[in-house]
């Protein structure tokens, strides 16, 4: 054990021994001075703390100091009743504070007890009780706020853990203070009881056992009793004041002195009013000008100095801001900052500000947090922070979505309206403003509140403007996910995987593949909307086949085959038949013969006439499936899948192209069309 640990243990044991063993008067004087010093130290620490958790040991200190004062009261009681003396400290407080008059000392003692018991202790107890209750009630909201900041990328996992731990400590502290305030209350009651016992018991012992006269016994024991009460209650008052300061102060940037000077004396005009009021009291009342005018002059001078200082600080701040602006324009760093491009931006006109303003009921920020969570769960992608800003160059109800500074989508919203999408047939009774659903380009109507219920009963899909934005933004992120995954983002995913699978990561990187090679494979998966959340399977496959080839296209095909269960479940439900468009043998042979090899890998060199024919026939089959309400899926052999995807991805980016080896053996497949040359 350390020396400080042994010292604390010996101190607690010493407090217990004080109640049992006799204490000499010289040692009692030292202990009483220590008690006063300790109380002053606790008060000063409480005044200089910025938040309650900086003095989280206070509830335990409150219990220890209460026990220490009780031991001192027992020791002084034994000396007062047994020897009719209690040392110089008690005698000094009894004679000096009471000015030799026991009645004065007794009244002073009662005043201290009343102030401590009724005013400070009662208020601190109530504040601690309410603080504990409110702290517990606010814990869920604070936890959600931490989770939101973590999901938004504003803090990391370590900072989130520290904030959660701080919330737990706050709850524990205010709960402990709720109980510890009872110590102060009980200590005040014990002081009154000990005073009565010492006074009555000392008077009886002095007359009956020491042969004192009535007046001598009354004078001696009353002064000693009053001195004992005062020397005990003054430290108790300081500590109870400390308790009140701690529980009544909220978190602040400064200590108590800074807060008082920064908040109480922040308005010089009010100080002038106070100075004028005090001057009027001295002039028009019997109080007199000698007591009021000097104080009023001092206040007026202080207000004048404060006003001048505030003006000087304001001028200096304005000059500093101007200099900073000039320096920023001149410095090369100001140009460098302009080179930063946000990965994702959402800009909107001033008419859509209520969507993002929480004070007006907007929940766009919360929806964006949920979008990032949804993309992480569905795509395995950590979406960067989405920059939200208003743009006066846009129309009032217009918004745009940008990826790396370039507009990739946009639309217009009508607040206080709903977007209604037809179920496949039009209802003439449902009228509104014709428009297009921005995410998928479907025909839709903007309808008002009275029409909403009728539209829902008619089978229309009805969504509010924030949901329209959320759907559009989610679709744009999924469509451009491969652009958002760079080498740095890939390194973050790798580091996260390495925490749980260090051998797997070390076996692949950098001995087999580089971070750039892995990034290319992951980007190709995201380009076709294949989730990369199962990083373990992806890395296992890359580690198996990366020693044979470094071609990212070939590695991607191996990974897709390893993710066959995931791909199958992505495009079909359990027990459902997958309806697909298959590729005929003539076209497969033509594509296989058109594959060319180069230093960068293989590529498809299909002649323009064949390419045009493939486009036309695929378009016919796809349109027929879409009109029947089915999702178009192209199914082909593994050898030409990626080349066929290259043919159609420019004009049919959202059409999935699968191979037979990417599907589970138990899935039922029905060919609803064949594309051939």
What's this model, at a glance?
This protein is an alpha/beta fold and 677 residues long.
Descriptors for this entry?
single chain; about 675 residues; alpha/beta; Glutaredoxin; 5 domains; 4-stranded mixed β-sheet; 4-stranded antiparallel β-sheet; 25 helices; about 10% strand
Distance between the first and last residues' Cα? 87 Å
- Outline: elongated
What's the count of strands? 14
Please describe the biggest sheet, giving its number of strands, its sense, and whether it closes into a barrel. 4 strands, mixed
Class inferred from helices and paired strands: alpha/beta
Could you explain how this protein is built, in words?
With 677 residues, this protein is an alpha/beta fold. The chain folds into five domains: 3-262, no CATH class; 265-337; 344-482, FHIPEP family, domain 1 (Glutaredoxin); 485-562, Helicase, Ruva Protein, domain 3; 575-677, Rossmann fold (3-Layer(aba) Sandwich), CATH 3.40.50.12790. Helices cover 65% and strands 10% of the residues. The protein is built from 25 helices and 14 strands. A four-stranded mixed sheet has the order 2-1-3-4, with helices on one face. It has a four-stranded antiparallel sheet with strand order 6-7-5-8. Strand 10 and strand 11 (601-604) form a beta hairpin. Helix 18 packs parallel to helix 20. The radius of gyration is 40 Å and the shape is elongated. The model has no long low-confidence stretch (mean pLDDT 81).
